[in-house]
Design a protein that fits this description.
By secondary structure, the protein is of the alpha/beta class. It contains twelve helices and twelve strands. The strands form three sheets. The chain has a five-stranded parallel beta sheet with strand order 2-1-3-4-5, with helices on both faces. The radius of gyration is 32 Å and the shape is elongated. It starts with a helix and ends in a 5-residue tail after the last strand.
């Protein structure tokens, strides 16, 4: 069992069937302060490699039981050790043939006897440093994955805990508004309208939290099937009609001549275009076909997106801040969810153009369904346009 100090050191495996050579290598490499492991045969070296991982292997070419090339072939044959750096050590007179064989086996380097101690130490030190950096990156990745898992579990739990009381609130507000519980005084009308609006906003936040947690956990429900992008774009514009009228926004739809997920993406894009606008919003939705793909572009004349954050807007919880815009509800999950859904349908969601202060264009691209006789009987009329399939995984 290695103690904490030994575990933090990189292992260096030195393989030679001559005890004097092993002692010389140990003396040369000792100043590196790493863990040196001796093997006086190829078989012993392979046994060490079954038990632990090494930063680098110094392997003598000429040994009695099996030569260094045979040992290297067996090392490269195992998935867990095929990437371990090997430095071959051999006599100078064998250089040409030995080097050819060594590099065919993926040798990291070649050292000739007799060698200068400082030279050998420097060579090995490079691989030790690479090993430590790889370990550090691996540890950071594990920590990040664990943090992401904990965050997803928290989001899922929080959303579920909020959903039940929120459903009760929405239900009672609905009964108060429609008179199920009796006629309410006229002066309550405005207050009930506001409460219903805020309850709907809160419900959208809860749904986004659940969707983000399910996407991260790979448990997001899918119902794959053909869909008509033109029809979905038209319906998305209709769903924003009421909000657009309140904002006195201009929203136009331009088209030549599981749908639920695509609709959700379009809703998010349109709502973002209306939200991040200074003054009167202007939004254009265009549907086109190119190179076997259908493309929906949502163009606005809003605040725009700086080049350095064009990819960050698709991260979880990232929200654009503009001091000239009033606060607005949301979690910063809409575009993250939208890109994940687009990817699951073998599509893309990206900012194709944006200028701060002048507006942005975001495009959703999905593959077109291949025409086939099986689908011709169910095809939409020619005016409905190309059909796109969001394929399941």
């Amino acid at each position: 069992m290695m103690d904490a100090g030994t575990a933090s050191q990189a292992g260096i495996l030195i393989v030679d069937d001559a005890a004097a050579n092993l002692a010389a290598l140990e003396a040369v490499l000792a100043p590196l302060g790493q863990r040196l492991v001796r093997a006086d045969s190829g078989r012993e070296a392979l046994r060490h490699l079954l038990r632990e991982r090494f930063a680098v292997i110094l392997l003598d070419v000429r040994m009695r039981d099996m030569d260094g090339f045979e040992v290297a072939s067996l090392i490269r044959a195992r998935p867990s050790t095929q990437g371990t750096p090997i430095i071959f050590v051999t006599a100078f007179q064998e250089a040409e043939e030995s080097m050819r064989r060594a590099y065919r086996l993926g040798a990291a380097d070649f050292i000739f006897k007799p060698y200068a101690p400082e030279f050998l130490r420097a060579k090995v030190g490079v691989f030790v440093e690479l090993y430590h950096r790889e370990r550090a990156i691996s540890d950071l990745l594990i920590q990040a994955q664990e943090a992401s898992r904990v965050k997803s579990e928290f989001l899922n739990m929080a959303a579920h805990e909020l959903r039940t009381p929120l459903s009760v609130i929405i239900g009672y507000l609905s009964m108060l508004s429609d008179g199920t519980l009796g006629e309410h005084p006229p002066r309550w009308g405005r207050a009930l309208e506001m409460l219903n609006t805020k309850a709907a906003e809160l419900n959208k936040i809860v749904e986004d939290l659940l969707a983000a947690a399910r996407l991260a956990g790979g448990a997001f429900p899918e119902q794959a099937g053909p869909c008509d992008l033109r029809q979905l774009a038209t319906e998305a514009v209709q769903r924003t009609k009421a909000r657009a009228e309140l904002l006195d926004a201009e929203v136009s739809l331009e088209v030549p001549a599981d749908p639920v997920h695509v609709s959700r993406i379009l809703d998010n894009l349109l709502n973002n275009a209306l939200t991040y606008a200074r003054g009167r919003p202007w939004v254009r939705v265009g549907v086109t076909q190119t190179a076997g793909e259908a493309v929906v572009e949502v163009e606005d004349r809003g605040i725009g997106i700086p080049a350095q954050v064009r990819e960050r807007i698709f991260e979880r919880f990232f929200r654009a801040n503009d001091p000239q815009l009033p606060p607005h509800p949301g979690t910063g999950l809409g575009l993250y969810i939208s890109r994940e859904l687009a990817s699951r349908h073998h599509g893309r969601l990206a900012v194709v153009d944006s200028t701060p202060g002048r507006g942005s264009t975001v495009a959703l691209t999905l593959p077109l369904v291949d025409p086939s006789p099986a689908r011709s009987s169910n095809a939409a009329s020619p005016r409905s346009g190309e059909r796109v399939r969001p394929p399941g995984r």
